[in-house]
Amino acid sequence: MKRVFGAKKDKEPPPSIQDASEKINKRGDTVEEKITKLDAELSRYKEQIKKTRPGPAQEAVKARAMRVLKQKRMYEGQRDMLYNQTFNLDQVAFASEGIKDAQQTMSALKSANKELKGMMKTVKIQDIDNLQDEMLDLMDVSNEIQETLGRSYNVPDDIDEEELMGELDALEADMGMETESEGVPSYLQPDKEPDLDAELNLPAAPIRHEAAPAGRSNAQAEDELGLPAVPRASLRG
Predict the structure, then answer these.
(1) Residue 102 — pLDDT band, cuts 50, 70, 90?
(2) Does the record's keyword annotation contain Translocase (predicted)?
(3) Which residue in 65, 78, 194, 207 has the most C-beta neighbors within 10 A?
(4) Residue 198, domain member (yes or no)
């Protein structure tokens, strides 16, 4: 059968967008090189026209330059067409990549959705509410235990406001007296004359006794140390 009808040839896979874009870009580069060569040739013809006098020779150079310019215009048209094709292929490639990204995103979302559904089956709102209620009850019990352990013993509870204010006034008076007697020096305390000798701890000044008046016996006179004074007459003799 294969000899009669021949074997069926395998179809080649269609070129991808990237392959087609690369092929067109190569053609565009080739055309661009041709245009560059034609530009260089036109520059030479321009110099020749400047150097040649008007006449048949100059007209011949202009004719060759016109022919090169027509070729350049043709290649420029091909180049623009190839660039437009490349632009269209780039747009198609961009759209294709966007669709592929969307497919991958959808696959990831489906997988995550399936996983979330499986996790939600193990977590119930009623179980969370029951757990919260149980935690609140445990916290209340803990507070009661702490209050019970912190309870004071033999503390009178029948103290009224009048007794409280009296106690505070007495405490304030005691603190004021302690401040006046301990914290403030005597010379700074109000309504008191400062005792400088007591503050400075100075010894008392010695008392000087005058001579005994007439009619008083010398035995009764005393000197500075409190001893009987010796008469001056006895000192001179």
Answers:
(1) very high
(2) no
(3) 65
(4) no
Q: Is residue 22 part of a domain?
A: yes
Q: What angle do CA 219, 223, 225 make, to 5 degrees?
A: 125
Question: Coil, helix or strand for 190?
Answer: coil
Burial class (CB in 10 A: 0-12, 13-18, 19+), 221: middle
Q: Is 192 helix (H, G, I), strand (E, B) or coil?
A: coil
Mean pLDDT of the chain: 76
pLDDT at residue number 218: 46
Cα gap 102→61, rounded to integer Å: 61
81 assigned to some structural domain: yes
Q: Which pair of tokens denotes residue 131? A: 């757990």
Domain of residue 64, residue span: 15-115
Residue 40 maps to a domain: yes
User: DSSP string covering 120-149, please?
Assistant: HHH--HHHHHHHHHHHHHHHHHHHHHHHHH
CA separation for the pair 70, 231 (Å, rounded): 161
Give the chain's domain count.
1
Please tell me the distance from the alpha carbon of residue 176 to that of residue 159, in angstroms, as a whole number. 25
* Confidence (pTM): 0.41
Instruction: Give backbone dihedrals phi and psi of 143, rounded to 5 degrees, phi first.
Output: -65, -40
* Two structure tokens written together for 96: 């294709």
